[in-house]
Design a protein that fits this description.
It is built from twelve helices and no strands. It is mainly α. It folds into two domains: 69 residues, no CATH class; 136 residues, Orthogonal Bundle (Arc Repressor Mutant, subunit A), CATH 1.10.10.1770.
């Protein structure tokens, strides 16, 4: 008999949940697919498993548990307090309801989530931004840090840590702040042009790391730079 630790696909549900909670980043990634294969067992353990996570955090382990249930056993979400409408807490200093955003991300409706994110940013920027339909970079600094943190937490938690403003900021920092290197890294056009033409954007978990949310670059990188440098997001990178 071969010795050594068995591969993740042979681990029991308790061991898989333990790895998802406390394993190395590599172990967590490997565990994610194995846990989905054990979705039936997970549905029976989900309530207890989620107690190990903070509803005020952004641990994608909790988000992945919820997404597996949504995919395979949506009825099990009914037994989880706040599960169907959004398990993570979503505080706002601007009286914005982030339940629709959380529900879209839970269901992996990333294009809808992206549009809801753009809408929230306009609301945070003020009435003039809402009326004109887009945000000026100069309107970003006064935005509430709590709200930007909430938006980012949801993106991180429901993307296996792959998407979100803080993810984009971390990648940009690793590339010495050079946006011309960031665009191909996250799967955007190399000139940074913002577009929603069919087929030009990948709305799935298979998209490159940092691919979402999309930020309008028609007027240059100043809007994205203002967002990624905002104190509410800078502390998360």
């Amino acid at each position: 008999m071969l010795s050594g630790r068995p591969p993740s696909t042979q681990l029991g549900i308790d061991q898989l949940l333990d790895r998802l909670l406390s394993g190395s980043p590599r172990q967590k990634r490997a565990t994610a697919s194995a846990l989905e294969k054990a979705s039936k067992e997970l549905s029976e353990k989900a309530v207890d498993a989620l107690q190990a996570y903070s509803q005020d955090g952004d641990d994608w382990g909790a988000g992945w548990i919820l997404q597996i249930l949504q995919r395979h056993h949506p009825d099990a979400l009914e037994s989880i307090p706040e599960g169907p409408d959004g398990w993570f807490h979503t505080p706002s200093a601007s009286d914005i309801d982030y339940t629709p955003l959380q529900c879209a991300l839970l269901r992996e409706h990333f294009e809808e989530a992206d549009r809801l994110t753009s809408c929230a940013l306009r609301e945070l920027a003020g009435d003039q931004a809402v009326q004109r339909g887009y945000v000026y970079f100069s309107e970003v600094p006064p935005m509430e840090a709590l709200d930007l943190t909430t938006i980012d937490r949801l993106w991180v938690a429901y993307s296996q840590g792959r998407f979100g403003f803080s993810v984009q900021a971390r990648l940009l920092n690793a590339l010495d702040g050079r946006y011309e290197r960031l665009w191909p890294r996250i799967g955007w056009k190399t000139d940074g042009v913002w577009t929603r033409y069919p087929g030009s954007f990948q709305w799935s978990m298979d998209a490159p790391e940092g691919h979402m949310p999309l930020v309008n670059q028609l007027r240059g990188v100043r809007l994205m730079d203002a967002l990624l440098q905002h104190p509410g997001l800078a502390i998360r990178t």
